[in-house]
Amino acid sequence: MTTTQLKDPPISKRLAKNIKRNFIERVIEIILMFAALAATFITIGIVYILVTEASGFFKEVSIIEFLTSRQWSPLFEDAHYGILPLISGTLTTSFVALSIAIPIGTVAAIYLSEFASHKTRESVKPVLELLVGVPTVVFGYFALLFVTPLLQKINPDLPTFNMLGPGIVMGVMIIPYIASVAEDAMRAVPMNMREGSYAMGATKFQTAIRVVTPAATSGIIAAYILGISRAVGETMVVAIAAGQQPTFTFNPLEGAATITAYIVQVAMGDLPHGSLGYQSIFAAGMVLFVITFVFNILGHMARKRFAERY
Amino acid sequence: MAQNKLNIKAEAKNLNFFYADGTKALKDVSLPVYENKITALIGPSGCGKSTFLRCFNRMHDLYPGNRYEGQILLHPDNTNVLAKGVDPIEVRMRISMVFQKPNPFPKSIYENVAYGLRVRGERSKSAVDDKVEEALKGASLWNEVKDRLQDLAFNLSGGQQQRLCIARALATDPEIMLFDEPTSALDPIATVNIEELMSGLKNKLSILIVTHNMQQAARISDYTAYMYLGEMIEFDATDKIFTNPGRKETEDYITGKFG
Ligand SMILES: Nc1ncnc2c1ncn2[C@@H]1O[C@H](COP(=O)(O)OP(=O)(O)OP(=O)(O)O)[C@@H](O)[C@H]1O
Ligand SMILES: [Mg+2]
């Protein structure tokens, strides 16, 4: 405002500038819209392919069998198509992973955001990010060749392929995701809220637990959702270290296959396109999609319930 | 409490304050805070009013590198609030604060008021219930919220939130309450509410308030201190300051010639 008053170019010139600026704004808007649409279309495309390929599968196999049979052996002579063993494998490994990643990730976030000095935070964060960058194959072999043997020292009956070892390693792998997203959420809590707590005579710990954490709940839930998605979708660690035997069990001391482990196993095998075995991975993929989707919806609802209002 | 005898509740003596970046924000400031009186701090923006206020409850300790020099004595026990050996948490247990922007916690109305008691380890439910009710009544909020104590505090209006923060600060029976421009984010009606509230509170405790609003200082305070560029220019009874100030600078500021 003040600058135009200072210079006051002729009206026509100022109008011309506006036209140009409006044009640029429009172009930017259209580009942004296409980017947003692209993401949406890709998602729709994925769902479309999943559904069409899976519908081929469901022409041969009844949905009832798929959802209730406790045996999954599509590649065998005596083929069974019950998804339950893959679901139990996925849920068990995810449960083990999250029961490690959620508590440790949360505590790490609280420490980094509320207690660590600036210097500590600046040196710990890159290490966490490094952990994120390690290829998951490495974690898989780490589980198989290091963690499981270690666990076998405690429990000699533990089979070489089990869900506990890879579950733990997955948990470690997910800690940095949860810690870093939750820490961002806690740091976003405005300082005046902390000051209010300190002014009441609260300690650092009381402030962190009673004020900052509840204020950051929605972001912390987002961190958990990210962790859950990572756990459910993780492939290599379980494919390598949990064995690839679909078994209907929730006992982490047994080996099992997860949905994702099954998908890579088939996708990397030499099954002809269009065969029932090949199509089965799309049916499995659809289940994976639904599980992730349900968790995201739940997370979304939880976040809305706890939406930040400072 | 003795109503006619004038007791000093706290006093700043030759207080200097340095921010972490080296800024010297307070220069040799001295000021008495009288018991059961309201003392107003006025002065142009940036003169150090908030800085001074926040020394009383050691708020500056939250940020590394800040440094105090001098004393703030708390009577009757003559404790130097700023002494190294004095735990800031102990100080904040005796001196509470209300901020410029209402800052309720993400908790229910009840839990907001109970917060100070909870951090002090109060377990008895009936004791907390009583204190919460008393504090809400003291902050003239009880009638508006008594049927929805479990509602989230954010659902209150701005003025109600500020009264909630006052109730929160009252619930622990502080000896002194610090107010940093408590009405500057509020509409005129909410402002009048809070002013009346503060005038009532001084029977129980001593009040130090920073305000930008000179009418407000004249209306509610018993004593007024004028600060400029980190220095205490003049301190006197409010009537005196507003009718017959001793210093030219004070007069210029009050009459609006400056600031
Ligand atoms: N964190 C800080 N670091 C360095 N200097 C600061 C900091 N906070 C405030 N100051 C400086 O200290 C001086 C006093 O600031 P203060 O906030 O106490 O003023 P004030 O009188 O409360 O002003 P206002 O009326 O605008 O609230 C100012 O010059 C300000 O720039
Ligand atoms: Mg201020």
From TrEMBL, chain B:
The keyword Glycoprotein belongs to this UniProt entry's keyword annotation: no
Gene Ontology biological process: phosphate ion transmembrane transport
Gene Ontology MF terms in the entry: ATP binding; ATP hydrolysis activity; phosphate transmembrane transporter activity
Superkingdom of source: Bacteria
Coiled-coil ranges (or none): none
Alphabetical UniProt keywords: ATP-binding, Cell membrane, Hydrolase, Membrane, Nucleotide-binding, Phosphate transport, Transport
InterPro entries assigned: AAA+_ATPase, ABC_transporter-like_ATP-bd, ABC_transporter-like_CS, P-loop_NTPase, PstB-like
UniProt entry tagged with the keyword Membrane: yes
Gene3D superfamilies hit by this protein: P-loop containing nucleotide triphosphate hydrolases
Positions of the ABC transporter domain: 10-254
GO cellular component: membrane
Short name of any one Pfam family annotated for the protein: ABC_tran
EC number: 3.6.3.27
NCBIfam families attached to this UniProt entry: 3a0107s01c2
Entry protein name: Phosphate transporter subunit ATP-binding component of ABC superfamily
